[in-house]
């Protein structure tokens, strides 16, 4: 079911109330394009390649022609959109193929395949779907999956016991505890118990600290922000010296995305629920990463002409015309912003597919590090 | 001796060349006020109290009337300056008095005094002076000092052995390794060996990670950025919802200062050597923390009228009129900026005295946490 707190900027949808705590960030109802929006230019700031560029991730193989031709159904593009669409589905497919090649090489050379353990507590439908998708993605590239399903009323100690077992299992190179955990458990205690060397989610504070510090590198970069950066890299977006705005400051996306942009020498500003006039600061950005979880928050009038827009939001909005009664939209009003930006990710088909691809990448990296395989 | 790479914005000094890597950030020679500077208003954005406000640091006692009256020689103020001067020397003195009261109470109640261990390797004159000053400051408030002096050619193992001894010594609550270490030593290995519970410098990546994350708190906040925040708090500067710019992104000041401002709900941007037009973004800030180590970089034309300016820089510039042949200036051109800002720290007498005060505060905090004393 779509939440009733979400808004929509499509011409067919009605605007809805936002909760009070988000009032500062609430967009005005958008049935038509605001008159304050700058006139859309036809010249993007960034020159996007016709197809994603050759991979820049360390240790990854080059893109196959077959994959390049395989781009399918990303987002529907308005006829008057001028932004180049960043095809996350295609890039994720490329990366998975590159990972499969690396894993085959590793297996041939040292007889080891990477292993990923997932711990799922409870029976939330969405969590079960995520875990199933992760398992399928692992199988497709040759990563061995380990799975533990615990009942909702399990104790914290039971979860910790399984983490300890995986920590000491040499065939497991990555451990992932599916969130959210049941309310009676302490997320911090549980996530901190995962060995820093197998924390493929990159959520451990030691990883975040190393990410924040100059001259240090984390063992793992959190998957979604890593996916955002990979999209920027593969589409040839220059980051050094550019102004970047990250909207949202969550521990899992916004904050690490800002640290990554900063490490890549962008000048970074973080916009959040206490920011006054977020549109003014966002309009200065050459690169925008929106990760706030508010449907269609970022409007055309927020965007610098030609900017690169990465939309992390996946928000359900009511849609009586859809068979499910709702559809998924991002934090960015695609209809408006695609007419002004130079590059934009669609929702779905943008950042979404990258998260699992980056999890596979982190698991492979971990196995290579542990086995000193280059 | 003053470095020849530094520039000066006073009317009596000559401008000097900046190194190439800092060219983007290099100020133009400033013998007169640039014509692009906005006209200085007489209305500060922030209403500063006549004396520092009552302390807001947790667990600190209130300011004494005697201390409040004891403000002495901070910076020389131009006759036409309109900014309120933030008196770091006075605030540091207040805080030290508050700490002394707390320590006396703790000793009476549980018979424990906080202990701070300092490890000094080599015989650098500046390091010896810092360590001597820290020892004196500890004695003044009742913190017990432990000191180890090792010769320049000591091995990393010798340093690690002393750290291990202090880690397990229950009378030591804070451990500080004086930087810089000799070149043959690995700073990261040595700093990481300090127990996270005694890392009063707050430089451990785990502490930085906790500082970056929402819903987590570090064991210790690095002393200089903590001092900057304390000055803002005690002078009644509202942070939530304000635009803040941090100039510089070092691990020990700029980066943690940005994380602290962000935790206090400012909208933070970080300006660094790759930032284009740093003056444009700085001019949007209600709060500026300058920590880049370039004399007089921040000019009047960079500042929003009425902004609060915290200048962390301590840079020597040649001054034939001074008995030492040089004098100390900040990263901010005080002469120009004090006419435009609402609040400003002088150099010396601003942030400098706060760093040691915060080290004492962290050591007391540590002892209270270890002994569960409230």
Automatic annotation (TrEMBL), chains A, B:
Pathway info: One-carbon metabolism; tetrahydrofolate interconversion
Swiss-Prot/TrEMBL keywords: Hydrolase, Multifunctional enzyme, NADP, One-carbon metabolism, Oxidoreductase, Photorespiration
Biological processes, Gene Ontology terms: photorespiration; tetrahydrofolate interconversion
InterPro entries noted in UniProt: Aminoacid_DH-like_N_sf, NAD(P)-bd_dom_sf, THF_DH/CycHdrlase, THF_DH/CycHdrlase_cat_dom, THF_DH/CycHdrlase_CS, THF_DH/CycHdrlase_NAD-bd_dom
Entry coiled-coil feature ranges: none
Domain Tetrahydrofolate dehydrogenase/cyclohydrolase NAD(P)-binding: 222-369
SUPFAM superfamilies: Aminoacid dehydrogenase-like, N-terminal domain, NAD(P)-binding Rossmann-fold domains
Cellular component GO terms, alphabetical: cytosol
Span of domain Tetrahydrofolate dehydrogenase/cyclohydrolase catalytic: 86-201
Molecular function as annotated in GO: methenyltetrahydrofolate cyclohydrolase activity; methylenetetrahydrofolate dehydrogenase (NADP+) activity
Catalysed reactions, as listed in the record: (6R)-5,10-methylene-5,6,7,8-tetrahydrofolate + NADP(+) = (6R)-5,10-methenyltetrahydrofolate + NADPH; (6R)-5,10-methenyltetrahydrofolate + H2O = (6R)-10-formyltetrahydrofolate + H(+)
Similarity section: Belongs to the tetrahydrofolate dehydrogenase/cyclohydrolase family.
NCBIfam families (UniProt xref): PRK14186.1
Subunit structure and binding partners: Homodimer.
Functional description taken from the UniProt entry: Catalyzes the oxidation of 5,10-methylenetetrahydrofolate to 5,10-methenyltetrahydrofolate and then the hydrolysis of 5,10-methenyltetrahydrofolate to 10-formyltetrahydrofolate.
PANTHER family: C-1-TETRAHYDROFOLATE SYNTHASE, CYTOPLASMIC, C-1-TETRAHYDROFOLATE SYNTHASE, CYTOPLASMIC-RELATED
Name recorded for this polypeptide: Uncharacterized protein
Protein species of origin: Oryza meyeriana var. granulata
